[in-house]
From TrEMBL:
Pfam families: Septin. This is Septin-type G domain-containing protein. InterPro entries: G_SEPTIN_dom, P-loop_NTPase, Septin. It comes from Somion occarium. SUPFAM superfamilies: P-loop containing nucleoside triphosphate hydrolases. Residues 21-293 form the Septin-type G domain. Keywords: GTP-binding, Nucleotide-binding. Belongs to the TRAFAC class TrmE-Era-EngA-EngB-Septin-like GTPase superfamily. Septin GTPase family.
Length: 296
């Protein structure tokens, strides 16, 4: 007798539904002005998403990033639609008095959780809630080669309580490879010392392969990146890169910097997990706190 009823097609049914809806991925970039935040975002998502002044269009007037500013894009690859929201933030910690300069960023992240919760609690809620919750915070570290600034530690700690934080060493072409690796180790030691728990988190659901992958990522963080919106010629071929006093840096060459590792991490290996972790850990923590407050 043929007992096959065909429920294994459920994976295709789910895929069809997901493809039709598309995916939403929201990233925020945080760090001092001039560390190359806008440039890196443009480098990751290839086309000119936001130019380095934070303008939407080339013919818009030049504007410094003075406020938190989300920009939306739709990217399609092989029929898969990714709606990408990138939230540029004004460089924090640029002032003489940096007290509470991180508040607007934390507030922005919490406001998205709050908006989502409000929609969830609405009786006649939409079947599909528009998701503006931030799935990943790229935190830009100044490539000093010394310690982290005290303010960076405070802000990373605050951020890691509400969002998946992924630290990167900005403009790593200003360090030699030895300096870079020493600095990476130093930053990791400081993060551990200050008890800052960063993404990725292991859960019981993870299989051995995922646990190993996460371990590799933890050993690589902070990603030492170089961004560029221009092409330079290397061996007669145009590549995304920068000229500096030591020669030419090919952004996509893994022996030059860790840009490719960061891009793979964001777009290939951890996209879904960043989205899921946001919902299951960060949003859930926010939600239960809010609901508890309502009961009191
Ligand atoms: P933001 O203020 O953090 O958004 O910084 P921008 O992306 O506007 O970049 C500030 C300046 O740094 C620009 O002149 C960029 O060309 C330059 N820059 C960006 N990324 C890099 C990098 O990886 N290495 C070097 N050397 N310069 C960079
Ligand atoms: Mg900028």
């Amino acid at each position: 007798a043929n007992s096959y009823v065909g429920f294994d097609t459920i994976t295709q049914q789910i895929e069809h539904k997901l493809l039709k809806r598309g995916f939403q991925f929201n990233v925020i970039v945080v760090g001092q002005t001039g560390l190359g935040k806008s440039t890196l975002i443009n480098t990751i998502f290839a086309s000119h998403l936001i130019d380095s002044k934070g303008r939407l269009e080339a013919d818009e007037p030049v504007r410094q990033t003075t406020e938190i500013h989300p920009v939306s894009h739709v990217i399609t690859e092989n029929g898969v639609k990714l709606r990408l929201n990138i939230v540029d933030t004004p460089g924090y910690g640029d002032q003489i008095n940096n007290e509470n300069c991180w508040d607007p960023i934390i507030k922005y992240i919490k406001d998205q959780h709050s908006a989502y919760l409000r929609k969830e609690l609405t009786a006649m809620r939409d079947r599909h809630i528009q998701d503006t919750r931030i799935h990943c915070c790229l935190f830009f570290i100044n490539p000093t080669g010394h310690s982290l600034r005290a303010i960076d530690i405070i802000v990373m700690k605050k951020l890691s309580e509400v969002v998946n934080v992924v630290p990167v060493i900005a403009k790593s072409d200003s360090l030699t490879l030895e300096e870079r690796d020493a600095f990476k180790q130093k930053v990791r030691a400081e993060l551990t010392y200050h008890n800052i728990r960063l993404y990725p988190f292991d859960t019981e659901e993870n299989d051995d392969e995922e646990i190993q992958l996460n371990e590799r990522i933890r050993n690589m963080i902070p990603f030492a990146v170089v961004g560029s919106e221009r092409e330079v010629i290397i061996d007669g071929k145009p590549v995304r890169g920068r000229k500096n006093r030591w020669g030419v840096v090919n952004v996509e060459d893994e022996t030059h910097c860790e840009f490719v590792y960061l891009r793979n991490f964001l777009t290939r290996t951890h996209l879904q997990d960043l989205i899921e972790t946001t919902a299951q850990i960060h949003y859930e923590a926010f939600r239960s706190k809010q609901l508890l407050a309502l009961k009191e």
